[in-house]
Amino acid sequence: MSDGLFRLRGIRAGYGATTVLRGVDLTVPPRSVVALLGANGAGKTTLLRAASGVIGLSAGRRTFDGEDLTTATPHQLARRGICHVPEGRGVFGSLTVRENIRLQATKGSESEAFDRAVSAFPRLGERMNQLARTMSGGEQQMLALARAYIQRPRVVLLDEVSMGLAPRIVDEIFEFLRRLAAEGASLLIVEQYVQRALEVADAVYLLNKGQVSFAGEPSELDGEDLFTSYVGGSVGSADRVSA
Ligand SMILES: Nc1ncnc2c1ncn2[C@@H]1O[C@H](COP(=O)(O)OP(=O)(O)OP(=O)(O)O)[C@@H](O)[C@H]1O
What we know:
Elements: E1 6-15, E2 18-28, E3 33-38, H1 44-52, E4 59-64, E5 67-68, H2 74-79, E6 82-85, H3 97-104, H4 110-120, H5 122-125, H6 137-149, E7 155-159, H7 167-182, E8 186-190, H8 194-200, E9 203-208, E10 211-216, H9 223-230
Parallel strand pairs: 3-8, 3-9, 6-7, 7-8
Antiparallel strand pairs: 1-2, 1-4, 4-5, 9-10
Adenosine-5'-triphosphate (ATP) is lined by residues 15, 18, 20, 38, 40-46.
């Protein structure tokens, strides 16, 4: 079976004795974009970590393509095409752009990987020999996304990929996310720019203190739901509540 459906059911997870997620159900349908919203500390990053296996599940199930992957390691999930782009980018700063890309490529497909990375973000092509840590924040984020893209992912978990970037770069990154979705990947995005996230999303989940308080289409979400979900968090930007 290869339906591309990624499902989390009854997820409980946290850190040590602290439970953050309390029975979360979330479905990422094939070829769709799902936005995950909620106040600071609601558990969004924790949910992406639980989804990609970075932290273990104390209860619940994770399935993909109808296969139970509850106990799979992050590596096994990545091999199934479930790819996590963590907050803070996750590139190797002391390696060049070329080396960062090569590390992600499968043996024998390095040149295809370079082409694919440059097709996603042409400016990476001009910076192949530059150390990743000497690039701008936006370029580092492009490299992180390109590293995901060359794996031909089927489900991409994206944590605040626009964080701290200039609006023009955010536009470029959202353009890329649209392309990724149009090429058939499913996306689960945590995004500080709520309005932008809702514009690309087919479905939206609101997380409130580790539980889903709303699941539906963006058009079903009224401003009050969103506001309630954000109350108590430090909102930080008017865009965050202007759905
Ligand atoms: N490594 C950790 N160890 C212990 N507690 C943690 C850890 N990471 C996060 N937490 C706690 O888990 C809760 C949920 O944090 P999480 O980062 O998932 O929230 P978030 O919704 O992504 O917030 P933000 O929008 O601020 O990034 C918070 O109370 C946080 O303090």
